[in-house]
Amino acid sequence: MEDAFEISDPRVLKAVAHPLRVRLLGLLRLDGPATASELGREVGESSGSTSYHLRELAKYGFIEEDPERRDGRERRWRARHRFTSWNSRELAESPEGREAVRIMHLRQVEAVSRWFQEFADDDTWPPEWTEVAGMSDEVVELPAAALSEFFTRTEELLHELAARHAGEPGAKQVNVWWGGLPRASAGPEAE
Q1: CA–CA separation, 183 and 138 (whole Å)
Q2: What is the pLDDT of residues 115-167, one digit of tens each?
Q3: Does some domain include residue 120?
């Protein structure tokens, strides 16, 4: 699996921004190869619907058939990349690009909400996980360059910790998010 899928075409970003496609791609990245039927059961959709959306994801280069795990009756699909990346500033140079980025950001927020709900609905987590799982927020004053540095250093720390604790007993797949947005009341006109 390749590391990143760098998107510069707003049509490609819009193609993956469909709610079901985002979920299917996420499941293939997290859980590995699957068929349309398996994914349909997971997301509560028909295999016909998931099959259509999987073909669309393949058309735009997000996924591919898994040649190592062929199923005689049904295609097995796998993600081609660990994550999707795009430059919001470059895409925002066109109305179509701004819309694609806006939609994709909303899909990311929906995914975070769904993962929190799944965690909250599962009361079987041991205390050490319920203590550390969650989210925090702060409001600080930063220039854009400092927020960029925060993202870079956070990603570096996360990769360092993942490498250090790889294969450790008790380690689990963990969804980690980080973000930062300037407050609307402190918009560009306030500068």
Answers
A1: 12
A2: 899 999 999 999 999 999 988 888 999 999 999 999 999 999 999 999 999 99
A3: yes
